């Protein structure tokens, strides 16, 4: 009833937001196309990376798979599910493991972009109550759901559907939490980084749109692919209106109102998503059709466009720069070193932990090869090592270092809503550096294998290659971190400066529009040129702060003048070759096999995380048990287990009672 009431006004309101955004996008598209063509013609770039970069790291790999309980909202029951996390980091839930191996349709597919992973009902209720229209319910109210174990895992989203899971032990909870966090981290980073025009045009359009609504600074919901981000942008504006319209109509107990609001919000989000996808795809197609003509104009008139832009920039600079420099001197400059130190400490600790984990894994592998055997053991260990960067549990100690990031008083001063943007970016860079180190190591080792004789020779070669790779890692890590620090400082200070300067500068910018030739208006924007001038006012101080940190060798940063001589001139040529498949090349495994067999093997061999504990006590499931499965499940129910909270016996008893209530009604 609520959606029927709101359907037409919501579609109209969504259409207006998207229309305004699409205008911003078309403007930014022309600017970024010009920048891309100019960069292609003029060239440029930073220092060459020493490590190799793997193009398709996880093709045909499964990150993790295992059993856990899911709460089914439709019938308010907990059911056992087999969850698979494929190479694209989606969460795929099957009825059971057999359904997965038989390639049956999954029950649920979850793209976790924008979600938070919660491990307690109290955390969840706090977020639910905070988003509920009207007065916040009292903390003592009955929770929205009951968990059959002490180890819940809840996926919460401010607009979309929530997902509820639980497991049997704290160890499992930690493991699944690491896996889910990796999924969120990867899905949040949904805009392709190799896109030179569309991606920067999109992110700039989002920023410009939000700034037009007086919303400056980082945004937590810049998560997922373009359609998801744009849906979040629309929902950010719709939710206040939705609450004021729907809030008074929500009746009943707190739990009923909570459930109703979550369902309404999710339904609206899906409506918005569908409408957003249609309109965004249309504007993207339109820009792609116009691109050849625009690119032709840019290449023909490049010099005139550059001259026109420089003329505009000089006029804006004369007007803005004096005010901007005073603002930087009084409000930004005194705090740059403090912000940088707050960023450097946890980030550098995280990258150091990446180095330590890589060193430990290779050293352990080398010791095991020395003690246990030669090439056969090498193949077994290299298959595991090759996917180390995508092992959520082993990488967790690296990622956790970023949890220490706190800007404290600086966060309020510069109006930074959350540090999660910086934490997530650093963690993605850590994973990338780990994979680059591993890929370089395996490429060099693979090249050496044909020349080695005996186990001792192999172990010496592994140690020598490890030392070479670590030197390359130190150099690349320094380069990556310095770039990250500069970008983070800009992300913190530029929105603050724009907000400070807006009252005196923004209203005057329209007078500069007449300086742009009409033919070049698609490639030069006054607003963008103004932001470039503001950026120049603070860039020198930021560059100097990072440079001084490198000169002092803080956190093992290298100076900009330090150039690492390439000791492996042919290494990058090796990286262009066919990806190494250790199992296929040295393990003698047959290529052709049925899809179901491949799926079974994916869990046992290709899966990054191996389940050391064997079958979970509830792996057979709690619904539709066969007699054989029933006996196996009974065997797990020892007297000790039956007395523990959340034991298999208790869960089965709970499910039995639920089934009875469903049949005859509650007592």
How is this structure best described in words?
By secondary structure, the chain is α+β, with helices and mostly antiparallel strands. It is 62% helix and 6% strand. The protein is built from 20 helices and seven strands. Strands 4-3-2-1-7-6-5 form a seven-stranded antiparallel β-sheet, with helices on both faces. β2 (77-86) and β3 form a beta hairpin. The two termini are 32 Å apart. The relative contact order is 0.12. It comes from Nothoprocta ornata. Belongs to the Niban family.
Secondary structure elements and pairings:
Layout: H1 2-42, E1 62-72, E2 77-86, E3 91-94, H2 97-101, E4 108-110, E5 116-118, H3 121-131, E6 151-156, E7 163-167, H4 170-188, H5 198-212, H6 226-246, H7 254-300, H8 302-372, H9 375-385, H10 392-400, H11 409-413, H12 420-448, H13 454-505, H14 526-551, H15 571-574, H16 582-586, H17 595-606, H18 627-635, H19 639-642, H20 648-664
Antiparallel strand pairs: 1-2, 1-7, 2-3, 3-4, 5-6, 6-7
Helix pairs in contact: 1-5, 1-6, 1-7, 6-7, 8-9, 8-10, 8-12, 8-13, 8-14, 12-13, 13-14
Strand content: 5-15%
Pick out the low-confidence regions: 603-648, 659-667
Share of helix among residues?
55-70%
Biggest sheet layout: 7 strands, antiparallel
Shape by Cα distribution: globular
The tally of strands reads 7
Can you give the mean pLDDT? 84
Total helices: the number is 20
Strand order of the largest sheet: 4-3-2-1-7-6-5
Rg from C-alpha positions?
A: 28 Å
End-to-end CA span: 32 Å
Which sequence of SSEs, written as H and E, runs from N to C?
A: HEEEHEEHEEHHHHHHHHHHHHHHHHH
- Overall SS class: alpha+beta
